[in-house]
Amino acid sequence: GFEARTEFGNMWHCCEETHAGDFEYAWGYQLKRYVEDLLRQYPMQREQVNHWYQICKTMFPIYVEYWAEHDDVKNRKPVLQEQVFDVPYPLPSGRVVRLRGKWDSVDLVGKGIWLQENKTKSGINEGVLRKQMNCDLQTLFYMIALQEAIKNGSF
Fold first, then answer.
1. With contact defined as beta carbons under 8 Å apart, do 6 and 41 qualify?
2. Whole-angstrom distance, CA of residue 86 vs CA of residue 98
3. Crossing angle of helices 4-20/46-68, nearest 10°?
4. Of 44, 49, 76, 116, whose CB has the highest number of CB atoms within 10 Å?
5. pLDDT tens profile 11-22
6. Element at 51 (helix H, strand E)
7. 87-119 pLDDT, tens digit each
8. How far apart are CA 87 and CA 154, in angstroms?
């Protein structure tokens, strides 16, 4: 059935992806299209799907407005957005593995390179999030892949 946590995250990511691209004001249209597919897929859970759609549709513009006031967002230059990567990574044993995924955004902020990875949470506690980042395997893989891509000249 409809998994609210997963699908709310997918709805949010749909908005983020559209907003970050060339069609930053088309996020509402893309969100609606995504939700229409969910409504067809879960006809017996329409009320729940619509509930989470309304939350996403209400929260996303507030989120965009909030972050638009931050210097790190105002002064960023997007380099890669929704970029698929496949980067070879040598292990200490000599074996080479491939790190694969999709970066949400890689940006230049001042003289630094920033990796943006969007996550949805039911509550925001900055201290807890900072601690979790040290253990977030997906984000750590993405950072290592970005470092390797820069080192190999494929960035």
1. no
2. 6
3. 40
4. 49
5. 998 898 888 766
6. helix 46-68
7. 889 899 999 999 988 888 888 888 888 887 776
8. 9
